[in-house]
Amino acid sequence: MQPTRRHYFFAGEYFPLLYLPYMQPIPPQILEYLPPVPPGYDIGYYDGYGLVYDPNTLMIISVIDLYRY
User: Which of 13, 27, 45, 64 has its CA 20 to 30 A from that of 7?
Assistant: First the structure.
């Protein structure tokens, strides 16, 4: 049985609508160390990624792969 591959996300791409129900909020303990999110944008966690995205268009403006660190 082959291991499944993680989806890769990059700034400037769009977050797939199919994955949106699985997006989780960033824990408050981590959120306090992050700079404020620009007005009109939201921050979420999905499969090891911290994503800053536009909730209207789902365009990703910033991404960090937390599994790499």
Answer: 27
Please list the residues that pair with 35 across neighbouring strands: none
| Contact (CB, 8 A) for 64 and 8 | no
Examine the pLDDT at 1 and tell me if it is beyond 90: no
53, exposed or middle or buried, with CB in 10 Å at 0-12, 13-18, 19+?
Answer: buried
| Amino acid letter, residue 12 | G
CA distances from 22 to 15, 18, 25, 45 (A): 11, 9, 10, 9
- Name the β-bridge partners of 60: 53
Cβ–Cβ contacts within 10 Å for residue 48, how many? 12
pLDDT in tens, 17-58: 999 999 999 888 888 888 899 999 999 999 999 999 999 999
